[in-house]
Write a structure and sequence with these properties.
15 helices, single chain, alpha+beta, 17% strand, Double Stranded RNA Binding Domain
Length: 452
């Protein structure tokens, strides 16, 4: 233990970035109630200021930041909550920090300025998808992008080639990016926080950002192409004991179904875990995914991520009955990362959901047999990650999007963009026209993905 009492150190880290009058997050953080008495997971959440009203110049509506920290102990939950809050804030503020560096021009003209990301990596939706999306999202283009369409471009350093800079669409980097209608820019894709990570250690922030991108790619390919996975037999006593301590052992109300989702060209072991209620009650089905070179930690964290969102089903059943009715409707649309979670939580179409899980599983593997790198220190992980990215990407870039007020408090927020592979998407609209999705056979599974 580096600090004692440890909670004082964690609380001090939280206090440096929080406050009721100042700070990037509100000083009030709330532990979530354990709805299932048998589950002893510690969770903390809270509210972030309404940054969108200033940054996005949008007075109506709301933004869901999906910030939650969880763990076996409140210290772990609070530091994760703080880190996620820093990450979300950085993603929203970053566009303002670089707005003077964004160049609005066509792809054809940008090619004269230097190396540019090909349009095929932003042109990821079919014509039919674009037409439908434009009815739900204002300023979204109905037409496929061309070389003569105006896009906001930002030059970033290459992640794999030292000294090289690449122009990439700014909208693919930032959650809080707004298209510039005055410049003739249109929206062709939505920005997600995939590939963004905050940490008090710069290298660890970069490692976490790359790992997140690679794990989401593995999951998206597996989910939408129904790629077969091996079910993992957890044969490690340490992991078993940790699960027992929070009520997720063999006698749990949930059946734990971990599967290996690692792709052949991805060196990061990736784990997806379904948690299925044995009594067929709400929440019936939960899901979590994690990539980690430490396979024990990876499979454990995927389970923890899944169980951490169990409260959503209870909360919406009590306070948002209209959402429950919406996801029960066969014609429902999944336009955010809440409705899809609620759909799988609802104890309806149980046989259908069970069949879906079964279609992914083919065979079994022991956790102890999953291959990974020998040295797990940060430098070794970063070296292996850069090697992996260099083999699958030519246009990967990175960006330090730490705002001055956070750097002063010891935080770093790193953003990576690896356009050749898949990032998070709206559940209703997967990337049907992305080259990587096509390379893997295209979309077979039309069910909305279960990621929160």
């Amino acid at each position: 233990m580096r600090f004692y009492p440890s909670f004082n150190k964690v609380l001090d880290t939280f206090n440096k970035v929080s406050g009721n009058q100042t700070g990037i997050i509100k000083a009030t953080a709330m532990p979530l109630i354990n709805q299932d008495k048998s589950i002893s997971l510690k969770s903390i959440t809270g509210n972030m200021p309404k940054y969108h009203k200033v940054l996005l110049e949008r007075q109506s509506g709301d933004v869901q930041y999906h910030v939650i920290g969880y763990g076996n102990f409140y210290e772990e939950a609070l530091i994760k909550y703080t880190g996620e809050s820093v990450e979300r804030y950085s993603s929203m503020v970053a566009p303002k920090l670089v707005e003077d560096k964004v160049v609005y021009d066509t792809y054809k003209n940008m090619c004269k300025r230097g190396k540019v990301m090909p349009l095929k990596y932003i042109d990821v939706f079919t014509k039919e998808q674009l037409e439908e999306m434009s009815t739900y999202i204002s300023d979204f283009s109905k037409e496929k992008i061309t070389e003569d369409d105006v896009v906001g471009w930002l030059q970033c350093p290459s992640l794999v080639n030292k000294g090289e800079n690449i122009w990439v669409p700014a909208i693919m980097l930032f959650v809080g990016y707004q298209v510039n209608l005055e410049k003739g820019e249109k929206q062709y894709i939505q920005g997600f926080s995939t590939g963004t990570a905050s940490h008090t250690d710069l290298k660890k922030a970069l490692v976490n950002a790359i790992v997140e991108y690679l794990q989401i790619d593995s999951f998206m390919i597996t989910w939408h192409t129904k790629r077969k996975c091996k079910r993992i037999n957890i044969d490690d006593e340490t992991v078993k004991k940790a699960l027992d301590e929070i009520g997720l052992g063999d006698d749990s109300i949930y059946e734990i179904i971990p599967v290996e989702m690692t792709l052949p060209d991805n060196s990061v072991p990736t784990f997806g875990t379904f948690l299925r209620r044995k009594d067929n009650k709400m929440p019936y089905l939960l899901f979590g995914v994690q990539g980690d070179f430490d396979v024990k930690n990876g499979v454990y964290r995927s389970i923890m991520e899944g169980i951490s969102i169990a409260h959503s089903g209870y909360f919406n059943t009590i306070y948002n009955r209209d959402l429950i009715e919406h996801v029960m409707n066969n014609d429902s649309k999944f336009l955010d990362l809440d409705l899809n979670v609620l759909y799988y939580s609802a104890p309806k179409h149980i046989d259908e959901k069970n069949k879906l899980i079964e279609e992914f599983i083919d065979g079994e593997i022991n956790l102890s047999d999953i291959k990974t790198i020998e040295n797990l220190d940060t430098d070794s992980q970063l070296k292996e990650l850069l090697k992996t990215v260099s083999e699958i990407s030519e246009y990967a870039v990175y960006m330090d999007m730490t705002s001055p007020e956070l750097r002063d408090k010891g935080w770093y927020t790193m953003r990576v963009l690896i356009p050749e592979i898949l990032e998070m998407c709206i559940p209703e609209f997967p990337f049907k026209d992305h080259p990587r999705m096509k390379e893997h056979g295209g979309i077979i599974n039309e069910y909305p993905h279960p990621m929160p």
